[in-house]
Amino acid sequence: MKSTIIRIGLLALSILAISLLHYLTPLHLHYLHDIFQRFYYLPIILAAIWFGLRGGLICSLAVSIVYAPHILFQWGGGLTLEMEKYLEIVMYNVVGGITGLLSQRERERSIELEKTAHGLEESYNALRLQSERIITIEEQLRRAERLSTLGEMAAVLAHEIRNPLGSIRGTAEILRDDYQPGNPKFEFIEIQIKETDRLNHVVEDFLRMARPQAVEMRRCSLREELEMIVTLTGSDARDRHIKLVLEPFKGDALVRGDGEKLRQAFLNIIMNALQATPTDGNVIISHRQTASGEALYYEICFRDSGPGIDEETVQHIFEPFFTTKADGTGLGLAITKKIIEGHGGTLEVKSGIGAGTEVIVQLPVLAEGQEQ
């Protein structure tokens, strides 16, 4: 709006200045008047370019009104002698109309091109989003295919790996009895037993991820489950010199679920937090009740003071076999997410480098009258 006013002001000033030159210049200097009357084309063409057909015609009409008195009163208005000047007025309007029409069409064409470009940009963005969705679906299909393959391998692994592991561990325990603590061979056998247990846990996680397990849904207290897990992991936290805090609950925070599965999920989250937290750090477990529409949820937040996780890693943290630990399997959080979602809840990780990590679990509140 401001620029429009400025342009109109410039046009008015230029027409006024040219007109004053005409009225103040003596008539015998006719060659100067010929030059001044050509100056009128400048504001007419500018008005046509800036404001289109309407601007060009209005400006040429204004020039004609201002210039006509000069012809009629100063030059005497002789029709034959001043025909050139009358024709000049006609040319002002012709030039204003034609230039304005061309400028307006060019502006309309530019607007159409902008709309086309905007439409192409929207189409490009839509295609890009669609391609990203296709890539995501392909990744999910590959993951589903991988899990399907895991299911087929589960029975083989149960027999071909777990049974020999049990034999290896039993044999190692027998051999350990022949040596006293402090003997190098005793330490080697301890390492063998420890690694056998770790490999057995890997196989168990593998089978748990590959095969859906039956879930016994019943009335379950989040307070009791979390208190039990904090008690179990308390000694580990003290050994690491980490402060593990469970904020007090108001009531039992009842949900409908499988207590054993929820304990497994909470244990995975807390152990990850303890492993990520440096000495003299802290892991705080808090809770609150939230609402989403008409549904009520208990939100449990596990917050640690560790180094945090970068954004790229957070995007892949729930993928099976993805891990940042040297001895990790990449199945812990994938199993945890599967358990939480199996209870109708959600699992979210918020983190940043140097900002610690926050794992948020949401589980539906047990409604009154709901099956216990």
UniProtKB/TrEMBL annotation:
Domain Histidine kinase per the UniProt entry, residue ranges: 156-367
Enzyme Commission no: 2.7.13.3
Keyword terms, alphabetized: ATP-binding, Kinase, Membrane, Nucleotide-binding, Phosphoprotein, Transferase, Transmembrane, Transmembrane helix, Two-component regulatory system
EC class of the enzyme, as a word: transferase
Catalytic activity: ATP + protein L-histidine = ADP + protein N-phospho-L-histidine
Keyword Magnesium tagged: no
One Pfam family hit: HATPase_c
Regions crossing the membrane: 6-27, 39-66
Gene Ontology molecular function: kinase activity
Superkingdom in the source lineage: Bacteria
Protein name, as recorded: histidine kinase
Upper classification of the organism: Bacteria, Pseudomonadati, Thermodesulfobacteriota, Desulfuromonadia, Geobacterales
